[in-house]
Each structure stands twice: as structure tokens, then as C-alpha cells.
Amino acid sequence: MSVIYVLLTISIIIAVLFFIAFIKAVKSGQYDDDYTPSVRMLFEDELVKTKPNKTIKKQKSN
Amino acid sequence: MKQTTCFHCGDSCTTDHIIFDNKNFCCNGCKTVYEIFSENDLTCYYDLQQSPGATPKEIQGKYDFLSDESIIEKLTEFNDGNNQIVTLTIPHIHCSSCIWILENLNKLNPNITTSQVNFGKKTLRVTYKSKEISLKELVLLLSKIGYEPYISLEDFNTGKNKVNRSLIYKLGVAGFAFGNVMFLSFPEYFEVEEFWLDQYKNVFRWLMFTFSLPVVFYAAQDYFISAYKGLKSKLLNIDIPIALGILVLFIRSTVEIIFDLGTGFFDSLTGLVFFLLLGKFFQQRTYNFLSFERDYKSYFPIAVTKIYHDKEIPIQVYDIKKGDRLLIRNEELIPVDGILINGNANIDYSFVTGESEAVKKHSGDKLFAGGKQTAGSIEMEALNAVEQSYLTQLWSNDIFNKNKEDGFTSLTNAISKRFTVAVLSIATLATVYWLIVDASKAINVFTAVLIIACPCAIALSAPFTLGNLLRIFGKLKFYLKNASVIEQLAKIDTIIFDKTGTITSNKESKTAYVGETLSTEEEALLTSTLRHSNHPLSRSLYDILQKNNIVSLNHFEEHLGQGIYGTSNSNSIKIGSAHYVGKPQQETDLHTAVHISTNNAYKGKFTFYNSYRKGLSKLFKTLKKDFDLAILSGDNDSELENLKKLLPSKTKLIFNQKPNDKLEYIKHHQNNGANVLMVGDGLNDAGALAQSDVGIAISENINVFSPACDAILDASKFDQLHNYIKASKAAIKIIKWSFIFSFIYNVIGLYFAITGQLMPVIAAILMPLSSISIVIFTTIATNVLGRRLK
What we know:
The complex is a heterodimer.
Chain A: H1 3-27, H2 36-61
Chain B: E1 18-20, E2 23-25, H1 28-39, H2 45-48, H3 69-75, E3 76-79, E4 83-89, H4 96-103, H5 105-108, E5 112-118, E6 123-129, H6 135-144, H7 166-190, H8 195-219, H9 221-232, H10 239-258, H11 266-283, E7 303-308, E8 311-316, E9 325-328, E10 338-342, E11 345-348, H12 350-353, E12 359-361, E13 366-367, E14 372-373, E15 378-382, H13 390-395, H14 411-437, H15 439-452, H16 456-475, E16 478-480, H17 484-490, E17 494-498, H18 499-503, E18 504-515, H19 520-531, H20 536-544, E19 555-559, E20 563-568, E21 571-576, H21 578-581, E22 592-598, E23 601-612, H22 616-626, E24 628-632, H23 640-646, E25 652-654, H24 659-671, E26 676-680, H25 686-691, E27 694-699, E28 711-714, H26 721-754, H27 760-788
Parallel strand pairs in B: 17-24, 17-26, 24-25, 26-27, 27-28
Antiparallel strand pairs in B: 1-2, 3-4, 4-6, 5-6, 7-8, 7-9, 9-15, 10-13, 10-15, 11-12, 11-14, 16-28, 18-23, 19-20, 20-21, 21-22, 22-23
């Protein structure tokens, strides 16, 4: 049945898409530094926290 | 007194204790950095790690060369007049706080657009508006907050940092094809005669063929190239049977599907290449933050100040010509050989000789490149251009251009020689047999033998064993350049040590006082005076002396390169060189000493002795059983008696060795058939390290200053050296065991191949199974080995 052609084409197209994504990721330098991004991600929370923390600190010192 | 540590840098607050904002600081510099951070809402820095900072250093005038347009042009990656992008190496990056503060630089100065840290490489990439903030200001800002960039001659050519990612691409291609081919060949494993599958089998087969094309012609190309090179130089390396196996697999599979004889072995083919590349990937593990290939370029500054018509102008180091007058500031390296004209020269040659004590020079004396000025600025006249100076000449020695691996036959290659011969003769014999019995099967059997005997398991065992051990060693602060160093390390029979900086520690030294006993008052005056001096000897003496009552001084003077002078109440003290304190009779003294006189009367001297590394004696005793030991020192023999007491009786002690002598000594032993391990530290050992079979550089600070070598060992792990060598030998045993295992698999496979029953399913099971079981075996074995090391 020709449905197998359709299925094969779809599955291979998806596989090739993933492969292209992988090559792109390597090319962009994503695998060059495998430590910093994992830490950088956590900083976003820290930045939000600073403001309320600061007011508490100020109250204490006053 | 309770020991308080600095809130910013974590050093103990002994000298100047400052309390600010309810926090302790060890010096004004740390306090200032804290102030900068708190003013800009950046105190989050201290929440991430405890005391993450570094004490900022005085850097007046050091970066003046960064205002030179041609130097900026060389350093920046991008420069359109408004925006510049620069990548700076910052050795101090060590924790997540560092990443946080450096990526928030725009809060300290709004003209910095973005900054991004690469933690592994310890680099910072900054984009900034060059009209508002110059490169020099940027570097000064970084230095001010304790992140001084390290700019050396090596940064001179920026465009070169291209990363070689081809192995990742190849691995990706092979993995992608392997997965898809497995999936496409699934129906064939079970039932080919079934109606629907039979109908479409050609589609599946040709798809598999298509997927295998990039694997054979792109991912596996290194094996073909290496095999070709091996054949050309008449060397039977491991890549020859591998390349042969891949080629036979591909051709036979293609022939099979063209003539509809069978399904082919595309799954085994892609799987084989994938596993082989995986092994290569594992072996190629490197430590990004370490450099094993340092030459003088990474030590030299990029620019130096030239005095021209009484004006100070920064010039590039390469532009120095004979006769130029150069200004060398405090803490700067001397870039070329020259003659001292004026100033207090106190040159620290530790990068060159490993000797930590500074040498005093007088006007008219010759200065050598690589020395570091430590007492104020001096003026000198260049004797020649950079390329012709002493250090660069040492580096131009032929051995630095030789690749050590070329002359070294690894265990795998040694075995593969016999292996290739054996496989080819088995294949021929089997084919001859089948030609007689059943000629139709002959070609089948011939190819089957080559396929199944493809030594993928053998090719995998060494990369995985050595790669994993490399990782374990790295965790234990023993960093190897690549996996083959382990194999070479296992063959060592002679070990040669450098003395200063290698078996002695630069940081700690022992002192002894000779002379009249000092009264309590004098002792108090001595410590109080020392407290004000920043000279390395004063600092180490101050740290050793008991802290008596600190008295406040009425007067303090520091005479650069000579000594210090202090008065309190009616007493005065002079601390420094024999000549300075007015020592009556001069004697030749081999040791470094600090002389003291109070109220103009000579009292005595503190002599500094080398202090040997922890566990030295024990290490030498254990090494003595298995190895020939020798110590080559560039020093005089003042420590001879001391060393004799410490070390086993047969250790050879040779003194007064110049860098070239060391190199020749090693060459001589190698010519007599010895495998030499050289352990050294300074640039002066660079030649010896390169000449030896394995060169290990000992380093107190892993991130800066180790000469080109095969391995870098953290000084704190020095006493473990013997265990590391033993582990390397054990690793070779593991590889030999896995060779035996893969040999058993091959015998089983060969049975199927010779009898002509090799089905694709059997190959598809047997080949990955042997590879995976070898990988598992070597990984477990090396991990057990690693656990025994500490």
C-alpha cells in the first residue's frame, strides 16, 4: 500500500529536521561551553529577588 | 584573637583589618570593590558563593598600551568605530558569582552593551560602545573589581580561535544514520517472506543504502585517510583492518541489494562507524581551561613602553629594535635581552629558572628576557629584537617542532600489526577451502571474515579505558594533554626531577635566625616594621614571626631593592641586604638572607632555606624500587647535604644545570634506551619537558604559567605521583584484558563466517554486542581503578 511511502517520507523528514537542528546547534557554538549557560539560567530568579531583599536589609540597618 | 576572614576575598584579615557595613575586609581594595557592588545593586554577588572576590592589584600605567589604535585593532574581534567586541582571558573566573558579576557589567557601566562568560575557557566576551568607554577603561574597570584580564602576546592574532567541531558533526551524521538504518532494517530481522514486507523491501533497502552513503564517505573518511597513510609509510596500523572492514561491508551490502541476494549489513556498518567515532570522541577529551602548548608568547606582554625623545610611547613587542630604550614598570616582564641603564633592578627569573628569589642587578648589567621586575621601574636598552633573545632561542630548539606521538607505537597499533596479518590469512585460507568445497560460497565467506573480524572492539578498548582514566585523573588534579600520555607514562623507567619549584615549594620556606638575640622591644619593632612592607621576603618573614605587641612607628622608609627602615620612640631598625644594614664583614653566602641591625648596630640575619614538598621523602623511597631517579637543578649545590639526608642513597644529584644541559642529559639517557619522565616547573625546563617521553609540569596555580608539557600536576598532589604511574600501568592491563574479550567474540564470529552462515542478524547482534560489552567492561574497570586513587 502506498500509505507506507507516506509514513516513511514523514518519518524521514522529521528525522532530517532533527538532524538539521542538531547541526545548527553545533554550529551556533552551543556545545562549546557546557557549563556557563546552566548557571546563567538561574540568575534570572536572583535578579527578581534582589529588590525585596534590599528593602529588608535597609530596614535592619536603620 | 579570633581569626576573621575577609567578606570579599576570604583571606584572613591580619595586616589591615577594616570594618565596613558590619562586614570584615582585609584591605582597602576589597572594601572598595564591595562599595562599588553595593552602590550598583550588585551585592547578589555575595549571595551566590562565600567570599568570591580577589584582591585588586595596583595597575597604574600597566595598560597604557591599550590606547594604541593598532593594538586595539589586533585585540578586538569587531570594530566599526562605534562598537567594539573583545574577548578577554580572565584567570580569576572560578565560581558562579564570577559569572554573575561579569555578565552584569552593564550595571557598573551603561556603555557596556553585553558581556558573556565562557566558564570552561575562562574568557569574557564584551560588547561596548567604544566612543564612551575605551578598551583601556574597560580593562581598568575589570581590574578594579578584581577580574584583571590576562593579555599576552598570544592574543595578538585574534582571528585564529576557530573551533574544530568536525568530530561532533561526524558523530551526529553516524548516529543519525545508525538510528534510521536500524529502524528501516527491523522488518528484515523477522520476516522477509511476508507479503507486504516483500513488496516494499527494495524501498527499505535503498533507503538504508542512501543513509549509509554519508556515513561511509563523510563520517568514516578519517579511517580511510589514516589507513592510506599507514600503508604508504608501510605501517600496519589499526585503521587498516577497520577501513578494510568498512569498505567490504559497504561493497558487499551494495552488491547484495543490487542483485537482490540479501539485505546487506547497513545496520552493522553504520553502527560500527558510530561506535568507533564515539570512542574517538571519548579519547579527545580536553581541558579547555588548561593550555599544554604554551610557549614564550603566552608569557610575554603585548606591548612595552619605549622612551623616545623623553616621551613615553607604547610600542608593540615585535617592533622593538636593537638600541631602543625601554621602560619596564614594577611587576612587568622584560621582553628582550638588554642592558640595565638605571633604576633598581630586582629581577625575578622564576618563569625562566624556577628560582623564586629575585636577583639584584646594577646599571650596566645584562638583563635576560623573561625576568620580572619587582622593585619599581627601570630603564633598559634592548640588545636585540624579540626573536633573537635568549628565551625565544630556547624555544626555537628543534624538539619543540617534533610531535611526540609520531615516534610512539601505541599498544593498539602494536597488536593490530599481527591482527591484520592473522585476519587476512584466515580469510584467504577460508576462501581457498570453500573454493575447493563449494565455490559459490567462497566470496561470501571471504567478505564475512573481513566483516566480522573488523577490530572495532579492539579499536574501542583503548580510547574508552584511557579516556575514562583521563577524566578520573582530571578530577584528582592531574591533567593530561591526551589519552596516549597514559600509555607512555606506563612505560617509564627513569624519572628526572627539577629541584626549585618542583620538589621544593615556592610558597613556604623555612627560616633560621643566626646572631644576637633580639630583645622583646626589638622584636616588636621588627614585626611592626615588616608589617608595612610589601616585599615578598618581608611578607613571608612577617607571617613566620610571632605576632608580638604591635607598636606604632614614628617613621618608615622603604628603599627599593635594599631594605626597609623604621623608628619607634628612640629605637631605629634596618632590615634588608647585608650592605644596607651595614654588616661589617662580607662573606659569600649561598642562601637568601635578610639582615637586621638596630640603632645602627648589626644584630644578625634570617636565612631562608628551601622547604621541600610534603611527602617528598616517602615518594622518592617508593619510586626508588621501580625507577632510576635523578635530580637536575639549575641551582648551586648549597642544598646538597639537606637533599642527601632526605632522599634515598642512590639518587643522582646534579647541580648547576643550564636548560640546554638538562635537555642533553635526557637525550643521552634516551639514547641508552631509557624511557624518561621529566618533572619540572619553570620555562627553563621547557626543553627538557619536550625532550622527555613524558613531561609533567608541576603547578601551584593551574591556570597560569606552566610551560609546554604533556601533563600538568597540581602541586598539592605531588606526593601521589607514584600512584598515578601505577594507575597508568593498571590501565594498560585493562586494555589487554579487553583485547582478550574482543578476541573471544571474534573467534565466535569467525566460526559463523568461515562456515558460511553469517546472517545479517548475527552480525547486527554480535558486532554491537562486542563493542558495548567492551565499553562497559573498560568503564567499570577504570572506575574501580579510579576509586583506589585518592
